[in-house]
Write a structure and sequence with these properties.
Length: 490
């Protein structure tokens, strides 16, 4: 055979190989495109089916997904490996000023969703498989109880809690649930001291309203068994169980109806429930609601309960209810180690509405505590991000937040009503947030320094830091870069 013949033969072989590769690639793509779709909810709540795509194609898909998430402004410090990811927020309370602002907008649900959007963009960066759980501290139901419904229990509340603050029955509109759904929230925890404010029938209506919007519910149910049941997220190897429960601060009011809707409350069964959840999962989160308003430190009872939960199998205990940020600590109990966030504060609330630059009430505790309407600590919060990758330890991080408004500007005549609200994610060091462009220069420095001071106080109380802050020095101070920081217990 001559040289030209050999060349032609080699060329033909190369062409045939290339054609074969094209055919195989087309077949692979066809196989992927015709695979049965899986809903995000199904993939979160059950072990994922093994991929049928070729390994190279699967790696390419993952690379494209990672690239897309990177373009969604992920938080500094967020692990990017494939993982089961769960976000948990503090208390969601829809105060009257929020309602007025929402009504003035003409679309309350969109107004509330816009208020949450600055934080929601960060959990959206984790993709559709991330699960977001909000603590909804209000029924969404027909109004049945007026503000004096708990007065007859005043002495009992004082005996149990040591303070004389009488809770007011709460209720929220349906548009709040619409806003949470639009914001990417997947589930609501209902195990708290306001869940029965509109009677058991109101709790049942809340369950129906949430479930009608595709929101799962934790800590409450149509039966006691359903209320206490854990919810499971992620595949085998990265399966996380989440339980929600409530430390009751008073007996159930005598006016409650016989409706079967129930809450999960801490009792003799709780420890065994955590132990069983640990047997069928790779990590356990327990969300506990306590009534300890404005206490920036855990009570002895909360510490004892947390230690028992960790000994039983909890890897993370998240406490809400005090409305202020409290320490995050590593706890060793019963031969196990876990993390306790003793209060993550508020998420959506106008509780500190009277707190503003130039008007400071020193935080106090117990019966002498500052009025919560004047306490700036109630504006601070932590949103918890939990990630579990097969073969790795549970990654627990915290996003600091601030309930921001321009009420102070309106009071000074520098802005016009209605009040604009937003839940802002904060940088952990340096300037805490980027005030909107319309914010007048007369109030810019005062508000920025005020928020920074209370941000620093909240993070000091929580005892968490960001690795990014270690790169800030006096010679090269931190500057706002349009991002927030995930913080971890050091």
């Amino acid at each position: 055979m001559n040289v030209s013949a050999v060349s032609r033969s080699r060329v033909a072989a190369v062409v045939l190989a290339a054609l074969a590769s094209v055919v195989l690639l087309a077949a692979a793509r066809s196989h992927v495109q015709t695979a049965a779709p899986t809903s995000p909810a199904a993939s979160r709540d059950a072990p994922a089916a093994p991929s049928v795509a070729p390994a190279e194609s699967a790696r390419a898909e993952r690379a494209r997904a990672e690239s897309a998430r990177a373009e969604s402004a992920p938080l500094e410090g967020a692990p990017r490996a494939t993982a089961t990811v769960i976000w948990l927020t503090g208390d969601v309370l829809l105060d009257p000023a929020f309602r007025r602002s929402g009504a003035a907008s003409g679309d309350p649900a969109e107004a509330y969703a816009s208020m949450i959007a600055p934080v929601a963009k960060h959990w959206r960066a984790d993709g559709d498989d991330a699960t977001v759980i909000a603590n909804l501290e209000s029924p969404v139901a027909t109004l049945r109880r007026e503000p004096d419904a708990y007065l007859e229990q005043a002495e009992e509340i004082f005996e149990r809690t040591g303070h004389r603050r009488i809770p007011s029955p709460l209720n929220a509109p349906q548009s709040l649930l619409d806003a949470l759904t639009r914001s990417g929230v997947d589930a609501v925890s209902l195990a708290n001291n306001h869940a029965l404010d509109q009677d058991r029938a109101g709790l049942a209506e809340t369950l129906d309203a949430a479930q009608a919007r595709g929101l799962a519910t934790l800590g409450a149910g149509r039966s006691d068994a359903d209320a206490r049941a854990p919810r499971f997220y992620g595949p085998a190897g990265a399966r996380i169980a989440v339980l929600a429960t409530f430390v009751r601060d008073r007996a159930e009011p005598p006016w409650l109806s016989a409706n079967e809707a129930r809450l999960s409350v801490v009792d003799a069964r709780t420890i065994d429930e955590v132990r069983r959840a640990a047997e069928t999962s790779d990590a356990v989160i327990v969300a506990v609601h306590v009534v300890a308003e404005l206490l920036a430190r855990p009570t002895p009872g909360t510490r004892e309960l947390t230690a028992s939960l960790i000994a039983a199998g909890a890897d993370l205990v998240v406490v809400h209810g005090p409305h202020v940020v409290a320490p995050v600590e590593r706890i060793e109990s019963g031969g196990r180690r876990g993390i306790a966030a003793f209060s993550i504060g508020n998420f959506v609330s106008d509780m500190g509405k009277e707190a503003r630059p130039g008007r400071e009430d020193a935080p106090r505790f117990g019966d002498d505590a500052a009025d919560k309407w004047h306490d700036p600590r109630t504006r601070s919060g932590l949103v918890v991000r939990v990630a579990l990758t097969p073969g790795s330890a549970l990654d627990v991080a915290f996003l600091p937040t601030w309930m921001h408004s321009d009420r102070w500007l309106i009071d000074q005549g520098l802005a016009q009503p209605p009040i604009t609200f937003s839940v802002e994610p904060l940088a952990a060091c340096g300037p805490p947030l980027q005030l909107r462009a319309a914010w007048p220069p007369e109030g810019y420095d005062a508000m920025e320094s005020w928020v920074a001071r209370h941000r620093d106080a909240a993070l000091a109380a929580a005892r968490i830091t960001s690795a990014a802050c270690a790169r800030c020095t006096e010679g090269a101070p931190c500057r706002w870069r349009g991002d927030a920081h995930l913080l971890r217990l050091q």
